[in-house]
Design a protein that fits this description.
This protein has 280 residues and is an alpha/beta fold. It has a single domain, classed as Metallo-beta-lactamase, Chain A (4-Layer Sandwich). Helix content is 22%, strand content 24%. The strands form two sheets. Strands 1-16-2-3-4-5-6-7 form an eight-stranded mixed sheet. It has an eight-stranded mixed sheet with strand order 8-9-10-11-12-13-14-15. Helix 8 links the parallel strand 14 and strand 15. The termini are close together. Bound molecules: zinc ion (2 copies). One zinc ion binds next to helix 2.
């Protein structure tokens, strides 16, 4: 993995063929020093954006991109730091002179939740009183369930970018496990990068996917208190060294600097916003 800080405005959604991850933000839901934890994945001519929080449209415009420039989307779960900007994406593509329906990778189960509980109120009734449907705004790409893999794993591709989605245990806090939790997913990118999305501390998740795949880097959410719905820093620094050394912490609050030294001593780094993580 190589970190590349240089980018030109507007940010190009293509590259020379390497797998590249670019955080448009790496902060927590309520962070002010960073945008929210939303991610662009680029390889060759292919791209997909993972999540679209309340501040994502602003974060994109800082990179010289409009919300309609991004053509492929994946949403991990329904907290506002991951979906709060989606209504703008949908309305701008339909009514704002966008190039037509963008594509979303979404399981049928989550489509019902995302539309019925979150997006429908602002999008359903516009030019027609009969009501629009989710499919009127999106080209839908269904992840394909892979039998024999844990966590309801399902595979979806955007050209050269392969995402293996798996369910996580994020909220409510006291859910017994991932299957009792509200829908949320993390993913493995091109069989080599583990991106947890939002999850409580879940060593079993880290163990099973490191057994199944040759994972080089783990992007993991972090919070600096115990309890709650994210993995705590104290739990993560107690993981085995080999796991810690692969770990890049993301989704962190504004107080992250006071934990930097201890994280580095443990072999972990904090993600950097507006940098390319290149995997050749
Ligand atoms: Zn979040
Ligand atoms: Zn969340």
């Amino acid at each position: 993995m190589k970190l590349r800080a240089k980018w030109t405005r507007p940010l190009a959604l293509h590259n020379q063929g390497q797998l590249s991850l670019f955080f448009i933000g790496c902060g927590s839901a309520f962070a002010r020093s960073h945008y929210q934890n939303n991610l662009l994945i680029i390889e060759g001519d292919d791209h997909v954006m993972v999540d679209c929080g309340t501040r994502a449209p602003l974060a994109l415009s800082e990179l010289g991109l409009g919300v309609t420039t991004v053509r492929n989307w994946l949403i991990t779960h329904s907290h506002a730091d991951h979906i709060g900007g989606l209504e703008e994406v949908m309305l701008m593509n339909r009514y704002g002179g966008g190039p037509g329906k963008p594509t979303i990778a979404i399981a049928a189960e989550y489509q019902r939740l995302l539309w019925g509980r979150s997006l429908r109120g602002g999008c359903e009734l516009n030019e027609t009183s009969e009501g629009l449907r989710f499919e009127d705004f999106w080209n839908i790409r269904r992840p394909r369930r892979i039998r024999g893999l844990p966590r309801n794993a399902a595979l979806v591709r955007f050209g050269n970018i392969e995402l293996l989605l798996f369910r996580t245990r994020h909220f409510p806090e006291h859910a017994a496990g991932w299957s009792d939790s509200f829908y949320s997913v993390g993913m493995i990118v091109n069989q080599r990068i583990l991106f947890t999305g939002d999850t409580q501390f879940d060593p079993d998740l880290l163990h099973i996917f490191q057994e199944l795949y040759d994972i080089e880097t783990i992007f993991h959410d972090v919070q600096f208190r115990t309890g709650g719905v994210h993995a705590s820093f104290e739990d993560l620094v107690a993981l085995p060294q080999a796991t810690r050394e692969k770990m890049v912490l993301m989704h962190y609050p504004d107080t992250w600097m006071s934990h930097r030294e201890r994280a580095e001593q443990a072999g972990m780094r904090f993600a950097r916003q507006h940098c390319f993580y290149d995997f050749s």
